[in-house]
Specification:
Elements: E1 5-13, E2 16-22, H1 32-39, E3 49-54, E4 63-69, E5 74-75, H2 79-93, E6 97-102, E7 105-111, E8 117-123, E9 145-146, E10 149-150, E11 153-156, E12 160-165, H3 174-182, E13 192-200, E14 203-210, E15 214-215, H4 220-232, E16 239-244, E17 247-253, E18 258-263, E19 266-274
Length: about 280
């Protein structure tokens, strides 16, 4: 058991919410059960992802951001959390630039004059091994179908995504088919599942079932994957607004094939949690 009283921040990006812990001074040593308890909305604090700040491994980075989903599993990338942690680090540095290190790589970020933060989420990987999927295929048209959806586009933007284009995203039972697709046999490491509707060449409506978290109000890496998928299909250009349940992100697939995400961040509150009150999560 770690120290009983643990300071934390509660932050969110368009409603995709995080409990942020600072382990730069010492290893918190949290177990998977403790992480799940902190993320539980009825027993703990509640969040989509638990974010732990650690000392960076790469000297170019300002901080290492470790990401755990609500089910305790580790995630490789989280675009909304990247903006939140960038804002935190920029406040500590008193300047408008920060480099966030994750297991997926280095993510440069920049504060914009309108209060938003732009984050370079790295390259969009498009090969079937990059997603990854269980068999060689053209990731522009993957052989996956369930219920009313089929023919997704595969994209890896720090994490695995399968983007399904639909006529009306409001009619999709995300809670019903999302978990089935996340755990589809074609995705050996599971996948984040996006359902996207093209409203115009510069505007996409998207809903998401996140791997290890379920339905969330926003998914930054999912918005990036959706724009890349739409551009690959010729449905949009390389820049568009992606509207999620919690708001809007501006996504651009840059000429160097990196994906830039721009959007807001929010600090909800700071607090302290008593880990001695932990109880079992079924």
């Amino acid at each position: 058991m770690t120290r009983a009283k643990l300071p934390f921040l509660k932050m969110h990006g368009l409603g995709n919410d995080f409990v942020v812990l600072d382990a730069r001074g010492s290893d918190l040593g949290l177990s998977r059960d403790q992480r799940r308890w902190l993320a539980d909305r009825h027993r703990g604090i509640g969040c989509d992802q638990l974010i732990t700040l650690e000392k960076p491994v790469d000297a170019r980075a300002d901080v290492f951001m470790r990401i755990h989903n609500a089910d305790g599993s580790e995630a490789r990338a989280c675009g909304n959390a990247t903006r939140c942690i960038a804002a935190r680090v920029m406040g500590e540095k008193a300047n408008g630039h920060a480099i966030i290190q994750t297991v997926a790589g280095l993510l440069p970020t920049e504060a914009l004059g309108n209060g938003e933060i732009a984050a370079d989420m790295g390259p969009a990987l498009l090969g079937w091994r990059d997603i990854p999927v269980a068999a060689e295929c053209d990731t522009l048209h993957m052989p996956v179908a369930f219920g009313p959806v089929a023919d997704p586009v595969g994209v890896n933007v720090g994490s695995s995504h399968a983007v399904f284009f639909v006529d009306d995203v409001a009619k999709i039972d995300v809670a019903g088919i999302g978990p089935k697709l996340e755990q589809h046999a074609f995705f050996p490491d599971r996948a984040n599942i996006e359902f996207a509707q093209i409203l115009s060449p510069g505007h996409i409506r998207m809903r998401v079932w996140e791997r290890g978290a379920g339905i969330t109000l926003a998914c930054g890496s999912g918005a990036c994957a959706t724009l890349v998928a739409a551009a690959r299909r010729g449905l949009t250009g390389r820049k568009a607004v992606v509207e999620v349940d919690g708001g809007k992100l501006t996504i651009e697939w840059l000429p160097n094939d990196n994906v830039q995400m721009t959007g807001p961040w929010t600090l909800s509150y700071a607090g302290e949690v008593d880990l001695s009150q932990i109880e079992a999560i079924p």
